[in-house]
Amino acid sequence: MLSIQGEQQEDRQGYVRASDEDVDLYVDGVSDEVIMCRERGRHLFPTIQQAGIRFAEVDGDGLFIRRLVCTCCDLAVRVEKWEGARRGGRTRFARVASSLEYRTGAKGEVYLAPAGRGHMTPRQIGDSVASKALAGQSLAELRKTLKAEAKKAAKAKKT
């Protein structure tokens, strides 16, 4: 049993790892593109050279807002805030902040897992994908096949 202090500390941890079952359910319900971003642990946003530097709006503080959509999953939007200033006869721009927003896909797909499921790491996503790809295979048979292939490769290397 936890003491009152122990229970309070447990409530404050904040980082709860998702269970393997929750990760499997999530992986079953999203597209391959979302899985790629989740397994990679980052999104693929175009560079300034690729997308250009086009601003969508100006916020209340006078900062220029630029929005970029992930070219892989199409659900993550990086919102950048840029400041422009004249210095020495030249206009200079500097990014001062950026954040991520997630939108819902055309078919109702969402990037983030449902609240209350815990944090899903890229490794957990990869483990789930690999487990599904190898489902139904016997571990003993897989080991036997790999050992046989290694022997063939060693034999071929000798000749």
Walk me through the structure:
This protein is an alpha+beta fold. The termini are far apart. Helix content is 40%, strand content 21%. The chain has a four-stranded antiparallel sheet with strand order 1-2-3-4, with no helix packed on it.
Task: Give the topology, please.
Elements: H1 4-12, H2 20-28, H3 32-40, H4 48-51, E1 57-58, E2 64-69, E3 76-87, E4 90-102, H5 122-133, H6 139-158
Please tag this protein with its features.
159 residues, alpha+beta, elongated, 4 strands, four-stranded antiparallel β-sheet
Q: How is the biggest beta sheet arranged? A: 4 strands, antiparallel
Strand content: 15-25%
Query: Structural class per helix/strand content?
Result: alpha+beta
Mean pLDDT: 89
The CA-CA distance between the termini, in Å, is 66 Å
Supply the number of helical segments: 6
The radius of gyration over CA amounts to 24 Å
Low-confidence stretches: none
The number of distinct β-strands equals: 4
The strand order across the widest sheet is: 1-2-3-4
Approximate shape: elongated
Helix-strand pattern: HHHHEEEEHH
